[in-house]
Amino acid sequence: MAKMTLDELRKLREQSKSNINRRDTSENDIQIIVGTGTCGIAAGSKNVLNAFIDAVEAQKLEHITIRQTGCMGLCYVEPTVEVRVPGMPDTIYGKVDAAVAEKIVSEHILGKKLVEGHIFDRPAPDIMKN
User: Fold this and answer.
1) How far is 111 from 54, CA to CA, in rounded Å?
2) Which domain holds residue 48?
3) CATH code for the domain of 62
4) Where are the alpha helices (DSSP H) in 22-83?
5) What is the DSSP letter of 67?
6) Which of 92, 79, 96 has the alpha carbon at shortest distance from 121?
7) 63 exposed, middle or buried (CB, 10 Å; 0-12, 13-18, 19+)?
């Protein structure tokens, strides 16, 4: 393995700090929680996690926590992702891939609309605001 230069080490440190800060929930309003149990990993949740990180960074969004959790109990629709946005119902999406992750960021987080076709758990319609 080749030795890293000081500049490469600094860049790696900054990148690692950014990734660690994405998992800190103390000042963040919005949470994206990716199911990374064994079934989720087998279904591609690591790629989904990276897709969310890329989408959030591409939009230059702040106050968003992206973190991992174990199995959500919806193994038949892995990879699964829970999205928590203030003023919206906590929503679990299933069968999420990189394209759906980008759609969740643009439509759910930025557009404040649920992404139909991938919702597998949400509150009853009578308690949801339009």
Assistant:
1) 18
2) 27-127
3) 3.40.30.10
4) 38-43, 45-58
5) E
6) 92
7) exposed
Vertex 51: Cα angle to 117 and 74 (nearest 5)? 45
In the prediction, which pLDDT does 4 show? 83
Digitized pLDDT (tens) for each residue of the chain, 130 residues in all: 678 888 888 888 887 776 666 555 555 689 999 999 999 999 999 999 999 999 999 999 888 999 999 999 899 999 999 999 998 889 999 999 999 999 999 999 999 999 999 999 765 565 555 5
What one-letter code names the amino acid at 85?
Answer: V
Tallying the residues shown for the chain, one arrives at: 130
Phi, psi of 74 (to 5 degrees): -115, 50
Q: Beta-carbon neighbour count of residue 43 at 10 Å?
A: 22
Contact 21, 14 (CB under 8 A): no
User: Rounded to an integer, what distance in angstroms lies between the CA atom of residue 96 and that of residue 48?
Assistant: 7
Structural domain includes residue 20? no
